[in-house]
Design brief:
Elements lengths: L2 H20 L5 H18 L5 H34 L2 H13 L3 H15 L5 H18 L4 H15 L6 H10 L3 H32 L5 H18 L3 H5 L5 H17 L4 H16 L3 H10 L1 H23 L2 H11 L9 H13 L4 H17 L5 H14 L8 H10 L3 H25 L6
Length: about 450
Amino acid sequence: MNETMLALLGFATIIMIIVLLLKNVTVPALAFIGVSTVTAAVLVATGTFTVAEMGDFISAGVSGVHSTAALFIFSVLFFGIMTDAGMFDKIINALMKRVGNNVVGVALMTCIIAMIGHLDGGGASTFLITIPAMLPVYKRLKMRPTTLLLICVTAMGVMNLLPWGGPTMRSATVLGIDPNELWMDLLPMQIVGIVIALATAFIWGNIEKKRGAGSSAESDAMAEAAEETAGETGSSELSDLARPNLFGFNIVLTLIVIVCLIFLDVPSYYVFMIGCAVALFVNYPGAKLQNKIIKSHSGPALMMASTILAAGVFLGVLEESEIMVHMANVLASFIPQSMGRFLPLIIGILSVPLTLMFCTDSYFFGLLPVLIGIGDAFGVNPAHTAIAMVVCRNCATFISPVVPATFLGVGLAGVEIKDHIKTSFPWIWGVSIICLIAGVVLGVLHF
């Protein structure tokens, strides 16, 4: 099978998965496994690769995401324990006293927390810091979790441009320059992006407010419902699990876990493993009760971990076989010769849709070198091509189904990935184009 046919097979695979997800035909795990298996079978049947080679590709793909799956399992368990113990109830009540029914204030708070949380450049840790803290507040105010995700990913997208962020480092590696040098060039675009992220929180906060979120009538109704539920259950299982006397300990433990996530050079999932062990031992001593707690949170953990591992199969089939590299070459060949000097503008506009198809490595190590080579023929500054790609692509990083952290975010928020993409894609694309225009206006990009 030649390179063009391999590229077409790759496009067909990705389009089929996206269609299955958006049409709600099946759960994501089955879509990834089923479609990827068909693609692998085609590759074997045509003699392109052997069964053993495909097995190695799949093994490599799953190995690349197993740490994310482990992270999700133990992070869900940890925050589940904290919820059962009642830690978040006190935090929510304190936040509600400060912001009251100020929906816009909550949205802005979400954006600021996500920006601060993403200073380490880790998408998974940012989701773990932001979503568990803010989701209960959103539910209390009847704000949609899709809005929470949109605000998060917008803030994370612009903060991910820091020199130690993965995309910036990858681009600098391809260019052969220091990441800090590339960052200084794109800094004006990042500043515009930060302003847009705050504006996103303000605008969507007002959208939620117009929908009725945070209204006193709804808050009263929710309070009455909570009182009725409490009255009906009395000494319910939830109250039995609450540990108000351990609130201080649980807060300190959670802060230690978050600090270790940011500063400690150990796997994130190990941090949560230790956190879970300590939280269970202190809050719920005894094997019987601990087993009960673990089982109560096993459903969502298993569902999302299976999705992440299945996505690893998909990435293994397409990335390890270099199909994504061939896809990049095909896309580059469609750029008209007459439009060569506008290459940064073209790739900037197309970056968000392309993010749904290319993982981070294939995008920067596969597509970027090809486009730089094309740009050289037209006198395009390689740094301008890289800047357009890294800034505009970053906006959409955490709505892409080929980025494992995306599944962590939607899993924590309890949102279907199709709903996340439907809500966020048009807005994020608009944000990326505004950043691109700002780059041209501010003189960062020249044609």
